[in-house]
Amino acid sequence: QVQLVESGGGLVQAGGSLRLSCAASGRTFGNYAMGWFRQAPGKEREFVATIRWSGGNTYYADSVKGRFTISKDNAKNTLYLQMNSLKPEDTAVYSCAASSKYYRGDYIYSYQYNYWGQGTQVTVSS
């Protein structure tokens, strides 16, 4: 089992920045990838970014490419999401996820992950 706890959400003005953290505990050595997803009110959960735990290959949704950066600290078992140039449409609950399942391609679908955090609210005001 893997436990994930997000932090760092909050209220920020458009154009501002936030850094989300996701602390992982438990059987983290079995993870192939971790990712961030978000869900806005009335909308389905959508993929934001993912990173391979070994090697560090990253992949981003087009909507955040160039503004968000996903990174990890293996020693601390912590995942990060640096969010810059935030827009009101970035407002959502952001959740981190971990996968102990192997896939050859990028981990961009919810079903590829088997562990989820509780989420942290990010609100961007205009």
Describe the structure.
The protein has no helices and 11 strands. Helix content is 0%, strand content 51%. It is globular. Strands 2, 4, 5, 6, 9, 10 and 11 form a 7-stranded mixed β-sheet that branches. A 4-stranded antiparallel β-sheet has the order 1-3-8-7, with no helix packed on it. With 126 residues, it is mostly beta strands.
Q: What radius of gyration results from the CA coordinates?
A: 14 Å
Q: Please give the count of helices.
A: 0
Calculate the terminal CA-CA distance, rounded to whole Å.
40 Å
- Shape by Cα distribution: globular
Mean pLDDT: 94
Please state the structural category: mainly beta
Percent of residues in helices comes to under 10%
Number of strands: 11
- Report the major sheet: 7 strands, mixed
Beta-strand portion reads: over 45%
Which structural traits does this protein have?
single chain; 126 residues; mainly beta; seven-stranded mixed sheet; four-stranded antiparallel sheet; globular
In short:
The protein is mainly β.
Strand and helix map with partners:
Elements: E1 2-7, E2 10-13, E3 18-26, E4 33-39, E5 46-52, E6 58-60, E7 68-73, E8 78-83, E9 92-99, E10 115-116, E11 120-125
Parallel strand pairs: 2-11
Antiparallel strand pairs: 1-3, 3-8, 4-5, 4-9, 5-6, 7-8, 9-10, 9-11
